[in-house]
Structure formats: C-alpha cells, structure tokens
Design goal:
CATH architecture: 5 Propeller
Helix content: under 10%
CATH topology: Tachylectin-2, Chain A
Shape: globular
Number of domains: 1
Distance between the termini: 18 Å
Structural class: mainly beta
Number of strands: 21
CATH class: Mainly Beta
Radius of gyration: 18 Å
CATH superfamily: Glycosyl hydrolase domain, family 43
Order of helices and strands: EEEEEEEEEEEEEEEEEEHEEEH
Length: 312
C-alpha cells in the first residue's frame, strides 16, 4: 500500500457545512472528536460573520450522518478578556478519567495562545486558564501522567528571520505550571513537505507500538501554502523519545472542497480522531479549506505498518 491509499474520504463529504447550522455563521471546520454517551461528539470551530470563532457541539449516532447541532451547548469566548478577545479556535479533546480536557487556541490581543478547559457533559465548561503564552497553538494533552507529571505537545513560533515552528513537549505537575520545555519534533529544512513549519493535529493515540501522532507540515509555494499530514511515533513510556517519523506526507488537499471551494485553499486540518469498536478503524474528522467539516477513515494497523517502512 502506498501513502496515497492510507486515507479514504467519506462519500458524503463535506459532512457538515455552515448551511447545517441553526443560526447564521460563515464557516464550520477543525473539529475535536470524542465518543460520548454512545455517540460521536464533535466540538466544532464555528466562525461567525463577525470573523470571531466559538466552539459548538454536533453529535451523531453513526459518526457520519444525521448530525444534531445543539446551540445551548456552545463554548463561547470571553471577549472581555485579553486572552480570548478575538475568539477561540481549533480544540483538541483528551479523556482523563471522567473529565474531558479541552486544549484550545485563544486569540489574544498579541496573538494566539494555548488555553485549557474541562467538562463532564459538554454543557458546562470550567476554564483552567492560559497555559502557554503567545505565539503558541496546535496543542494537546496526553491522557495519562508520566512519573506524576502531565505532558503537553504544542507549537510555539520562534522569533527568527525564517519564523520556524517546531513541535515542543512541556511538563506539569498540576496542569497549571509548565516547564522542562524541549523540542519534540523539529521542522525539516529545504524542500521537504514538512520544512520550516509543523504542528500537531489530533491528540496522541496510544497503540501497541507507542504514541501515534498525526501532524501537519506547511509547504510554501509560489501560489500559497499547502497543508499536508504525516505520522510520527513516540515511546509509550518516554513520550519525549521519537521512534519514527514519516518521510512522506500521507494525506493532502485533493478534492474540490479541500482545494479551492473554501475560504482558505489547500488545507486539510484534523483536530480529532476516534478509534472504532473494532480497534482498528480510525475516523479522522478534519476541516477542509477552513470552511467545512469532512471525514476520512484509515486502518490503524495499516498506518503503523506503513510508518515502520517509511520513516527516519
């Protein structure tokens, strides 16, 4: 199997658009995903016609159709605060016991930053505050502690001439105070598909081989940027240890709704995936062209096998 065969787009894509919303919005995209009360629940980034974004719940029994959107379960930005003045974006959900921990991007006066909130029912949300200052985003928690400490993957932007952006790993004893910051995966140089700017997509997924990561690389071309996806694998007990990293990208903008039929061309951007009851089928929920929500499926075992043969 080649890299182009790993993901299968759902035949009904896009599965959610602005037209499905019960109130007027500009675009819906970049959803977090989790199983909740025997359904698939998406926490969708919703961009209003103001230009600001909030998060909204959409749920489905089969994870692909008959979506129910619930306006009363929205997670709205605190626009009177400095950290969320220009909206909240791109959530990732990690299940920690009975808590659903939501890492999201707050858009502040001075740029994007990483925020944390928790919920048990996706109706009431407890804000736990800013955990990484600007400019930082593309963050997610691991679902367990390591020697009593929580681990966070995130993507600060270095202040350099090239504005390079790498994936970092940080540690905390209490989810509030963070330190021991180290580069986890460095953006490659030159003409690689993931040169200069990379970032995490879906939260880390524990497999028999280690923690599987789905991440994006941004290729800058003469006609604009292209967002594509690749894989990496971390040690199960030492998440700071990189075991494998894909040499090729595995999924990129190809369909019309991913390329030019949206607000931002050439973008596929997942913020969540759900493992099926068979323990092998992954449902990957992604934003297409910063405009709609789409679904792709993949075999976990096939992805791991492919990564073992196409990595550095």
């Amino acid at each position: 199997m080649t890299s182009s065969d790993l993901f299968q787009r759902h035949e009904s894509n896009p599965i959610l658009t602005a037209a499905d919303w019960p109130y007027t919005v500009n675009a819906v995209f970049n959803p977090a995903a989790v199983r909740f009360e025997d359904e698939t629940l998406l926490l969708v980034r919703v961009e209003d016609r103001t230009g600001l974004s909030h998060l909204a719940v959409a749920r489905s029994a089969d994870g692909s159709s008959n979506w129910i959107i619930e306006p009363d379960r929205r997670f709205l930005p605190e626009i009177e605060s400095h950290s969320e003045r220009f909206g909240i974006e791109d959530p990732r959900i990690t299940v920690c016991g009975e808590e659903f921990m939501i890492i999201y991007t707050g858009y502040s006066d001075v740029g994007p930053l990483v925020c944390l909130a928790s919920t048990r029912d996706f109706r009431t949300y407890e804000r736990l505050g800013v955990i990484m200052p600007p400019d930082d985003k593309d963050a997610a928690l691991f679902p367990r502690t390591f020697d009593g400490r929580w681990a966070l993957i995130h993507r600060p932007v270095a202040v350099t001439d090239g504005h390079e952006a790498h994936m970092w790993l940080s540690w905390s004893p209490d989810l509030r105070h963070w330190g021991d910051h180290t580069i986890l995966i460095q953006a490659r140089a030159g003409a690689w598909w993931d040169a200069h700017k990379i970032g995490l997509n879906a939260p880390p997924l524990l497999t028999s081989h280690g923690w599987l990561l789905l991440y994006h690389g941004v290729r800058v071309t003469a006609s604009g940027s292209i967002y594509r996806l690749g894989l990496a694998l971390l040690d199960a007990e030492q998440p700071g240890k990189l075991l494998a990293r894909s040499t090729e990208w595995i999924f990129g903008p190809q369909a019309s709704y991913e390329r030019g039929d949206g607000d931002v061309s050439d973008v596929v951007f997942p913020c969540g995936w759900v493992l099926g009851d068979d323990g092998d089928t992954l449902h990957i929920y992604y934003g297409a062209a910063d405009t709609s929500v789409c679904l792709a499926t993949a075999s976990l075992s096939t992805m791991l096998d492919w990564l073992s043969r196409h990595s550095v």
